[in-house]
Amino acid sequence: MSKLTVQREKLHLTQEELAEKSGISVRTIQRIESGQEPKGFTRRALAKALEVEESYFEENKIPETENQPTRRWNKIINLSALPFIWLPPLNILVPLALFFWKRQINPITKKLLSIQIIWTLVGVVLFVVVLILTDWFGVESNAKKLIPVLWIGLNGFVIIRNALVLGKEAPSRILPNINIL
Asked: Is the domain 3-57 a CATH 1.10.260.40 member?
């Protein structure tokens, strides 16, 4: 949860009310609440409207130590895709089931699910490319086996790398930075 959300809710303001009070668009407020850092005029206007110092927004995220269960579930949801990277529908469905079952609807889990969705779409495209290479150009069987192996290996690397980042005390930076949800 962002500091902006916490302060806005503390003052019993809706996003629309804060937008009117600060002169900042609702969409910008939504972006900041989902993790984007406010800068310049936006930071000053929000600080004035929320009656806080501008420095309040220097680190827009609330420290993860205050939110350990969410942090742990983010990591579990991320790692739940790992056993199923060889079977693309399950690398989305298992994390998605955990996402809704544990009600871990936050910007980090949305990014993690987005990565797997995009990754699966890339896998489908690669599969089609392998079929085309095989049929049209007569590519050797070793070359066509290399593409899925690299795809699975890279997906595993991304999952493990993000799990390591989620395990740190510092604010997380999930890569690749994709969010379609």
From this structure: yes
